[in-house]
Amino acid sequence: MNNRKMVVLITNLVFVLLVLSLLYGIIGIVFSSSGIAPVHHLIYNRPNEEYIKIVLQSLMGMILLFLPSISRKQIKITFADGMQVMFVLFLFAAIILGEVRNFYRRFQYWDTLLHTFSGVMLGAFGFSFIDILNDNKDIKIELSAKFVSVFAFCFAITIDTFWEILEFTMDVLMDLNMQQYMLHDGTILIGKAAVFDTMKDLIVDTLGALVICITGYFMIKNKKT
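Now predict its structure.
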């Protein structure tokens, strides 16, 4: 099996899992909202907002899975197979394992690990985008290693910042506690405790992006010498 077929297989498998997660979330919303006794209390015994998050993130994940295909067909940008697999596995770890399997609560550092990885992944995406431009014969540019590294770093931090803004927006509109300003027992955090999760996410995103961008800088320098 070649690399492209493997990417398609992994993508399709994760898509099916996201569809199942969407159905799981919808059924959970029905049970938690109607007061009907769940079929299995060990499976459907979570707060309503958690099922809403599963539905929203499953839908978003299903849409994001199509982005590489859309970029390839519409704007003629093709990312490496390794980058696409990394992206798909990140969605699997964040949505299927994190939300559906409840790894965020079961494993204390799961969220931190994923945010660090997202910084690395998005930084790598930034480098890949510049490589694609450099390989385009219609675009004649010669970018320095410093510029490419700074661009990749800013790209990663910008996307991660937009995600935090999205989390804040969803908390304001739907009170989903995506930014962890409230404990599981309903206690509202105040002061630094209320913004700790958001700031921790931004810090580890930045560190992950910084590591990959510094590494990429020296790789480009060595390639040119």
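The mean pLDDT is 87.
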